[in-house]
Amino acid sequence: MDRHFKKHFENYTQGQFFELVGHSEEIWKALEQSEFITPRVLGSSDGIIYYEYLDIPFRIDEVWKKDLDIDPVIFKKIGEMLLLIHNSSLDSLMHGDYVLHNIFLNSSEDLCLIDCHPPEVVGYDRSFLYGDGQIETYLFLLNLASSLGVKLALANIKSVRLAMLSFRRGYDSIGGLRPLVSAIIRFYKIRRASGYSDFNSLMHLLIGLFFIGVSRG
Predict the structure, then answer these.
(1) Burial class of 123 by CB neighbour count within 10 A (0 to 12, 13 to 18, 19+)
(2) Hey, which of 17, 47, 67, 68 would disulfide with 159, CB 3.0 to 4.6 Å?
(3) Number of domains composing the chain
(4) DSSP letter string over 129-194?
(5) Contact 65, 152 (CB under 8 A)
(6) H/E run at residue 16
(7) pLDDT for the residue 2
(8) Does a structural domain hold residue 108?
(9) Are 146 and 61 within 8 A, CB to CB?
């Protein structure tokens, strides 16, 4: 087998695990002909997926924290990458956990995307893999300030607003009250499942909504 990375999945039934393998292959196909990179599935066995190894030293959220004047084109491309997934030949395909800590730059500054499955604290949930892409898009926006760190985000509103505006330009069309409400519920449940308090979860949610509001137009 080629150089690979092993990802372990626990508490999945055999059917759920095989669906996850197929989903990973579909994400790779969605980006195969693009400038974006995601690891190919090399094989699987006993709750383990073997992915192609990628040399990805730069995580986008860490890059952003070190350079608040980061090129906004990066966020535009992040929007374009998600749109490619949502507009793939497979109707209703979603990434599963589209957040900045799953997006990297390689040494050639290509955008690379990993971990196309529901957050580990969620476990198997098919609605994270297939469904309304607008929910995943809003969830990315809700998470953006938290990815930077809320104190840093509130101290640098211009940087976060520009990042969201650039992402919106890349994704092209974001809207709808129903998917926003679904994303709000999903955001809150993920933070609570991750061990954050009610107060912390609500605070991050409100800050996320604030930035969505100021990034319109």
Answers:
(1) middle
(2) 68
(3) 1
(4) TBS-HHHHHHHHHHHHHHHH-HHHHHHTHHHHHHHHHHHHHHH-----HHHHHHHHHHHHHHHHHT
(5) yes
(6) helix 14-31
(7) 67
(8) yes
(9) no
| Tokens found for residue 196 | 């954050």
Tokens of 144: 């953006």
Tokens representing 118 are 């529901």
The predicted-structure confidence for 143-197, as pLDDT tens digits, reads as follows 999 999 999 999 999 999 999 999 999 999 898 999 999 999 999 999 999 999 9
Contact criterion met (CB below 8 Å) for 71 and 60: no
CATH number at residue 174: 1.10.510.10
Q: In Å, what is the CA distance from 10 to each residue of 27, 39, 100, 192? A: 21, 21, 24, 20
Tens digit of each residue's pLDDT (9 = 90 or more) over 75-133: 999 999 999 999 997 779 999 999 999 999 999 999 999 999 999 999 999 999 999 99
Q: What angle do CA 76, 81, 29 make, to 5 degrees?
A: 165
Rounded to whole angstroms, the Cα distance separating 163 from 55 reads 25
Q: Which of 9, 6, 39, 45 minimizes the C-alpha distance to 25? A: 39
Tens digits of per-residue pLDDT, 29-80?
999 999 999 999 999 999 999 999 999 999 999 999 999 999 999 999 999 9
